[in-house]
Design a protein that fits this description.
CATH superfamily of one domain: P-loop containing nucleotide triphosphate hydrolases
Mean pLDDT: 88
Pfam families: ABC_tran
Largest sheet: 7 strands, mixed
Order of helices and strands: EEEHEHEHHHEHEHEEHEHEEHEHE
Protein name: ABC-2 type transport system ATP-binding protein
Shape: globular
Strand content: 25-35%
InterPro entries: AAA+_ATPase, ABC_transporter-like_ATP-bd, ABC_transporter-like_CS, ABC_transporter_ATP-binding, P-loop_NTPase
CATH class of one domain: Alpha Beta
Radius of gyration: 23 Å
CATH architecture of one domain: 3-Layer(aba) Sandwich
Keywords: ATP-binding, Nucleotide-binding, Transport
Number of strands: 14
CATH topology of one domain: Rossmann fold
Helix content: 25-40%
GO molecular function, one term: ATP hydrolysis activity
Bound molecules: adenosine-5'-triphosphate
Amino acid sequence: MATAISFENVVKRYHDIYAVNDVSCEIEAGSIVALLGPNGAGKTTAISIMLGLTKPTSGRVRAFGEDPMRRAARRHYGVMLQQVGLPQKVRVGELVDWFRSFYDAPLSTDALLDMADLRDLARKEAVKLSGGQQRRLQFAMAMAGNPRILFLDEPTTGMDISSRRGFWDYLRKFAKERDRTIILTTHHLDEAETIADRVLVMQKGRVIADGSVDALKRQAGNRYVSFWAGEVVTEDMIAGLPHVNEVRWSGRHVRITTDSPDDVLRAVILANLDVSGFEVSQGQLEDAFVSLTARDEEEDGTVFDGRRPR
Ligand SMILES: Nc1ncnc2c1ncn2[C@@H]1O[C@H](COP(=O)(O)OP(=O)(O)OP(=O)(O)O)[C@@H](O)[C@H]1O
């Protein structure tokens, strides 16, 4: 598999702040990678370095083997950034055409309008679109040059649920059928969970976890046992079970966070508690994210899934 983006010991320092602190990783062509992390983690700086907009203090960055500060690398890029002003009085179709004119081999206007679900709005003034429709227009503009890598910064902000779903369905198909690479940031971890092949979690400029959604959930170590508790079951009875790290009650529904679901189940059965509807799960990516970033805060350690320890 070809490498789309590579970072070798990349550092970006602003005075005494390491926005990116010795990051090394490779992003395979054709993969969908979500870059996650709390505010100030270094995501925007890392993307800006990939785009060739920010020069690293030290280290080496390549996009398909070329320096992203050079135009040769950037011709592979499609970019959808968070805040983009649209010109007044220009219609949607005209704007898409204008973007197409920057490229030697652009996608057709119809294809671009279709993929952004904007065919019916082609004659509308771009500034009069709703927030979600403007995001879709930015997507069509980002796709104009038929890019090999698409950078998406919080792409679904302002989109309604059905637009979001359509957008992600389309992107997944696009990446897989055409072997395109997608690098995205989002604060909607459920979206990252649905779409990403790989998740990079950044904190304080470093990559603290790197792997598939499942691998990250496993690394986070949290497992959940949940069930419905009968009226006679008390909070103390549940809290007193072995291997219980945390208990959440929602009415009579109980969710236990544990590192050993088997031991919890065994103890519940042995204690003959009045419970029903057992479920054991690994939780959501969000749970793993919270636990990995909190753990890093405590230990200052780095967690990998074993594929690329650096
Ligand atoms: N131009 C700059 N000058 C000085 N410090 C900067 C600059 N850009 C970023 N930083 C600092 O670098 C760190 C990383 O910032 P960055 O914007 O990359 O984080 P982020 O993960 O994208 O955060 P958010 O989720 O809030 O957008 C922060 O401490 C930020 O204050």
